Structures are given as structure tokens and as C-alpha cells.
Amino acid sequence: MKNNTMVLYDNVETAYFIERENRFILRLKRENNEEINAYVANPGRMEEFLVPGHPFFITQSQAGKYKYHTVSTVYQDSYILLDTIKINRLAEIMIKNKRIDLFKNITNIRREVKLLNSKFDFLLEPEDEKPIILEIKSCSLCHNGVAMFPDAPTERGKRHMEDLEQLANQGFQTYTLYMINHKNATVFIPNGHTDPDYSRTFCDSQKVKFLAYKFNLIDPITLDLTFFKPVKIDYQKACSIHQDRGSYLMIMYNAEEFTETIGSIGQRTFKKGYYVYAGSALHGLEHRIKRHLKKNKKLHWHIDYISPAHMKTVKVYPIRRADPIEESLARGLMDICEGYIDQFGASDSKVTSHLFYFPEPPFRRRDFLDLLLDHRMFSLP
Length: 381
What we know:
- The chain is of the alpha+beta class.
- It folds into 3 domains: 9-75, CATH 2.40.50.580; 84-238, Trna Endonuclease, Chain: A, domain 1 (3-Layer(aba) Sandwich), CATH 3.40.1350; 246-376, no CATH class.
- It has 7 helices and 23 strands.
- The chain has helices spanning 84-96, 155-169, 196-204, 235-238, 285-293, 326-336, 366-376; strands at 5-7, 13-22, 25-30, 35-40, 55-60, 68-75, 78-81, 106-115, 118-126, 132-139, 141-143, 146-149, 173-180, 187-190, 209-219, 222-230, 232-233, 246-254, 258-262, 266-270, 273-281, 312-319, 355-358.
- The strands form 5 sheets. The protein has a 7-stranded mixed β-sheet. The protein has a 5-stranded mixed β-barrel with strand order 2-3-4-6-5. Strands 11-12-14-17 form a 4-stranded mixed β-sheet.
- Strand 8 (106-115) and strand 9 form a beta hairpin.
- The longest helix is centred in the middle third of the chain and has 15 residues, at 155-169.
- It is globular, with a radius of gyration of 23 Å.
- The two termini are 44 Å apart.
- The mean pLDDT is 95.
């Protein structure tokens, strides 16, 4: 530590995203055009970063299986620390330096304490108060100032909250602290779009207390220890987006060109490539999505004629909002697509189609991800 900063790594260089090999390995290209595999200590989806050419910051290490470790990236004018171990270390420093008002009288800190069915990050012992069980959650998903956790379903995270609730009944104070990895965050919401069970457990918790704080990297490897600020948790919004209703984007891959008669709109030809379907179900969202994936079903919706008979579903992105945004999604897709199927899924829509063509994976395009996150974060409409 020096001058209220902390340098986290000895060396760093920039490399650029090619592909995600698996949960913990990114395929990157260095400045000298060498392609490498780099370990990333973050199991989240991180899809908003996984666009070809997106910069990641890597360090070389002599320890461990992999020579290169991915340590950070950048998103919407903020460096993002991807090493969850370092984030837990930062939380401990902030507690010891009394930067969290609720934890200013702590006399002892124990790390990684196993209780019930979970291992928790900290057991804090305050003076003349009940002991505190504290779980840290690293939040790297922040778009247009709205931070959300988790960015992938987490059964472990849900179990942590359930066990914290039980421990509160056994005489502990229990907290979850969301460490938001973006200097421009203004509000935190649990991510009910991606993990409605986690969001529902969050909203059902009676005794677990929740805190959200944001921190800042001033460069890819240097923490600003003076910047540690609370972020508002929007409980009202939180408890509205795990409901079984909303809209969705369904991405399908078509392996070869075919022509099919689609209900009353007649024959349509589908080129090889990716298709994105914008739909909605303001009642029974999960059932609607599951129906699209079924092989044996009555042909009712236009989408039934191609899924799954001709196309493989690659990803489905639910957007759990009560307001009707299907047409807004379709208009956005119309602006960025490279083709569309006329009248498909648009019988009662002002947009001429709800099925859009992309020759390459749309989930690796910045404009598609912005459209998705703008709607998930309530930036649009």
C-alpha cells in the first residue's frame, strides 16, 4: 500500500478477447498477435465483456497450471477487477479500516468459517454485540449504473442466504455484502432475470441484512483505497423481476438453408446462420419458453414451425418485466440485424417482423448485448 493505493500485481499487459474456452479459460490475443489461454478466477458468465477484440488485462505467473492469469477488464469507463480473491481481501481491509459504518466496532475477524451447510467469508466479533456472519458477493455486472448479482444462476448463493436466515435465528447477526466492481454504479438489484430463485430468496429473507458498496480501480491493477462508497439497494424493483412474466430473446442456430411454410404467412426461406426471436408471455414466461423447446407440440405460433424442427436453440434471455417491451426489443433488433423474416411473429405488432437474422453469434456483438442489458436494467424504453 502506498499513497492510499494498492497495486495488486507485479506486471500487466493487454490482450484481446477471441473466445471463452470454458468456465475458467479465456482465449486471448496478445499485442504481438500470439494467441494464449489465460485463467480467470471468476465463474460468472461475464457476457458483456466477451466481444471479439474486447480488452482484458493479464499477468504472467510462475505459480499454478497456467502461465497467464486474467486479472481485470474495462467496461463503460470503469476498470473491472475479475479476481474474486482480491475482492474479498479488499472487503477485509475496508472492515479493518472502519470504512463500513455498521462494522466499526469489530475487535476480531475470522475468515472462511463453516456453519450449517455453508462456508462463509467472515465471522466478525464486535464489542458487546452478537457475532456477525458476513458473506461477500463480487458483482461485476453493472450496465448504465445498474449493478446486478448474480450474472449466472447460483445455487450456492441461494443456499448462503437460506443458511444466513437460519443462523440469524440462532443468535448471529447476518449480512451479505455486494462488492460492486464499477465506479459508476448508482443502484443494486438482485438479478431476477438470470436467477429468479436467488432473487426470490433475497426478497423473502426476513433477518438477513444486505449491503452494497462500490470500489474503484484507477488502472488495470491499482486499487484506490479512498474510494469505497455505499450504493442504494432498490428493494421495490428487486421484488418485481423474479415474477414468471415478461419478454424474452431466443437465439437459434440454423445449420443449413431451408424453406418452410409458416402458417398463414406462407413460404419463407431461412439462410444458414443465427436467428433471434423476440417474444413475450406476460403470464407464464417459463412455460412459454419451455414450450418453444419441445419437439412434440401443436403448431400454433410461427416459431413452432422452425423450433426445434429446423433450428437448435443456443440461448434464451428472459427479461422479467411486467410492462410490454416485446415491440421495443423487435425495433432494436431491426436496427442491428442483417436480415429478417417478413411478418414472422408480428401478427399483432407494429414491427414488421419478430425474427431477425445474424450471420455470426449475436451474443458476441456489443450492439446486441447493449440492447439486452438496456432492457434488463430498465434503461429502455
